[in-house]
Amino acid sequence: MIVRKAKMDDAVGIYAVEKETFSVPWSIESIFRELANEELTRYYVLEDETKSIVGYAGLWRVTDEGQITNIALCKCCRRNGYGELLLRVLMEAAWEDGCNDIFLEVRISNMPALHLYRKLGYTVLSVRKNYYSKPLEDAYVMNCRKENYRRIIR
Question: Domain N-acetyltransferase spans what residues (predicted)?
């Protein structure tokens, strides 16, 4: 498995992962727009040995803040550390780009994701009521400060 920066050619592979992972997936048009907006977005893909995209992670960068858009893995790749690998690559790129904080939303029932985020230094800031649909669920808004992350990974 390798992680690399996403290209426009990766949109269809990212969309396939998106459809497998989320109950309300982004459209292929949205993914193309995200990948085209290199000034604002950072996307990375996880490729298997056949060069198929089996995961991806994305972030919006605005001044000195990052907002994670999505992190998704095909079912066959979950629980093997690949989500953490993708997240670490994305976060390191954000820190190098000048971000001091990274924010994200996560379903409050997504225990594997919450465990990973806490492991990497994220803390809960607030709850967004009914943020997700299908099923309707609240989200935690979480934040990781660059200095907290650096302290944790030492």
Answer: 1-147
